[in-house]
Design a protein that fits this description.
By secondary structure, the protein is α/β, with parallel strands linked by helices. It has 6 helices and 6 strands. The strands form 2 sheets. The protein has a 4-stranded parallel beta sheet, with helices on both faces. The protein has a two-stranded antiparallel ribbon with strand order 1-2.
Length: about 220
C-alpha cells in the first residue's frame, strides 16, 4: 500500500509540473493556427445579389390553408435579407442535414445558406456530398475548408458571408423550430450576439420522456 501511495504522490507531482506548459500550449496554439490560416488561406469572394426582397418569417395564422391552420403559423414578409445561415459539417448524416436545411427555408433563401465542409485535406476526396447538396438546391453555398476544425470552418464561413449584417450558425443536426425569429431586435451596440438553447428530439422530431428529456 505504501508503494502505491508513493507512486500516486509521484504521479500527481509530475502532472502538476507539466500543467502550466500544457495550459500555455493549449491557449496559444489555436489562435496561432488561425493567424497562419488567415495569412495563407485564399477564400473566394462571395457577393450575394443585392435585393430589397424580404425573408419569410412566421406569424399567427388567419384564414389560410388547413395545413397552416394546423401549425398555427403562415408565411409572411417582414424583414430584409440581411442574415446568413452558416452550417459547419463533415461526414454529416445527410438525412439529418436535409432536415436542417429544410427547416431554414422559411427564414433563409438558398443562397443565404453556407455549408462549410471542414475536412483534413487540401481538396475534397469525394465530391458526392457537394453534388448531393447541389441536388437539394443549386443555390446552396458549399465551401471546402481544409482544416479539420469546427472553429476554423466557422471562421471561413464568416469571411465568406462578410457582406451580411448578421450570421446565424448551427450544427448539422440542429433544426430551426417553426417559431424561429431572427433575434435582431436584441442586437445593439452593447449586445453583439445572441445564443439559443437546444432541445433534444428523436428522429421524428418528438421529445420522448426517456433519455432525450432527461438530457435537456
Amino acid at each position: 500500500m505504501d508503494k502505491i501511495l508513493a507512486w500516486m504522490d509521484k504521479a500527481i507531482a509530475q502532472t502538476q509540473s507539466y500543467m502550466l506548459p500544457v495550459l500555455v500550449i493549449v491557449l496559444t496554439l489555436e489562435p496561432l493556427m488561425f493567424l497562419i490560416i488567415l495569412s495563407i488561406a485564399r477564400v473566394p469572394p462571395y457577393n450575394p445579389p443585392k435585393t430589397h426582397s424580404s425573408p419569410v418569417v412566421q406569424e399567427p395564422a388567419d384564414e389560410k390553408s388547413p395545413s397552416d391552420l394546423e401549425r398555427g403559423v403562415v408565411p409572411s414578409v417582414t424583414e430584409a435579407w440581411e442574415t446568413a445561415l452558416m452550417i459547419p459539417c463533415h461526414n454529416s448524416d445527410r438525412e439529418a442535414l436535409r432536415k436542417v436545411i429544410e427547416s431554414a427555408y422559411p427564414h433563409f433563401r438558398p443562397q443565404d445558406i453556407f455549408i462549410i465542409d471542414n475536412g483534413r485535406s487540401r481538396h475534397p476526396q469525394d465530391l458526392s456530398f457537394r453534388h448531393w447538396l447541389k441536388n437539394l438546391h443549386p443555390d446552396l453555398v458549399y465551401i471546402w475548408s481544409p482544416i479539420g476544425s469546427k472553429n476554423a470552418a466557422q471562421l471561413v464561413g464568416s469571411l465568406a458571408a462578410k457582406n451580411y449584417k448578421y450570421i446565424l450558425t448551427t450544427d448539422d443536426d440542429v433544426s430551426l423550430p417553426e417559431n424561429y425569429r431572427h433575434p435582431i431586435h436584441f442586437m445593439n451596440d452593447h449586445q453583439r450576439a445572441v445564443a439559443f438553447p437546444l432541445a433534444g428530439t428523436d428522429a421524428d422530431g418528438n421529445t420522448p420522456l426517456g433519455m432525450v428529456s432527461w438530457q435537456d
